[in-house]
Amino acid sequence: MSMSMTMGSPHAPAAYAGRPLLEVNDLKKYFPIKAGFFGGKTGNVYAVDGVSFHINKGETLSLVGESGCGKSTVGKTILRLYSPTGGQVVLDGQRIDDLSDSKLRPIRRRVGVVFQDPFSSLNPRMRVRDLLAEPIRNYGLAKNSADLDARLAKLMDTVRLPREAVNRFPHEFSGGQRQRICIARALAGEPELIICDEAVSALDVSVKAQIINLLQDLQKELGLAMLFISHDLAIVEHMTHRVAVMYLGKIVEVAPKRSLFAAPKHPYTEALLSAVPVPEPGASRERIILKGDVPSPINPPKGCRFHTRCPYAFDRCRSDEPLLKQTDEGHWAACHLHSLPESQNPLARSVVRYS
Fold first, then answer.
1. In this structure, which of 37, 67, 73, 130 has its CB flanked by the most CB atoms within 10 Å?
2. pLDDT in tens, 157-199
3. For the chain, what are the domain ranges?
4. Can you give the pTM of this predicted structure?
5. Torsion on CA atoms 331, 334, 339, 340, rounded to nearest 10
6. How far is CA 195 from CA 176, 183, 192, 328, in A?
7. From CA 336, how far away is CA 311, in angstroms rounded?
8. Is the predicted pLDDT of residue 11 greater than 50, yes or no?
């Protein structure tokens, strides 16, 4: 599915005017499967299969879904850690997915990344000073050594770590402190967009809250846009402006946070939200247990990819692939239930309040 991500596109909030910072159009990433002595190709893993979305300046879009749905692959393909199989990635009006390495290099400083594991993200043989100075030197941002020192001090202040800690090695820090260093490194190139790939999932609960608060503060202070990749909807609810839900390589629903959490328009989203803990003491919620396992991305089902586990599936779901269509203002879902009369659509009848 290909769609334009300019104003008036399915995911563009009505209050936003101007060009989105990041546009992802019909992005595909297939991994070839090879077998035999000569390594002949036998098929593909359809990890990302036609994903489209945009992120406005200063906005957070959360990309959510079960493990293996392709959300981390989306982030790594945007970063060009993986070469895309098809589609386009446009940063501030400039297409970047087809740039050569030399032309891509100056663009890279505009996009920072924070990975899941702070223990493996930092070179254990380098002091924090050298880890943070590396991108500053690479992009020629410091005029001299005094300017470099000033930038390092500012980065440590920004992530709420003591300035003298730049002389320590990564193993001398806790997990939360290491993730703060990773955030500082992501900010060292003065980016406009940060991609957080499960950036808090490896941390303790109390530390998660600190890092989430830090990211929110940084977004306000620096005007950052953010792609927040996560499987934890409880965190996403506090972190994001809009949510895109992925299932088996495709986006099945996109909506503003409040709209999606209040009234999901796709059965998969409804099931995910039913597992989110209820914050009110004594409150309860009916848990939706999906039957079966996630199908293989090597051989995804025909029609709607969710129909093998969907409690509401009917004949059309097994043959026709649904496209993202608007159900409410700013709310888009890929589900054939919305082609039925409202009296026959279980998602139109049920409204669940989550916040």
1. 73
2. 999 999 999 999 999 999 999 999 999 999 999 999 999 999 8
3. 264-355
4. 0.88
5. -90
6. 18, 10, 10, 28
7. 13
8. no
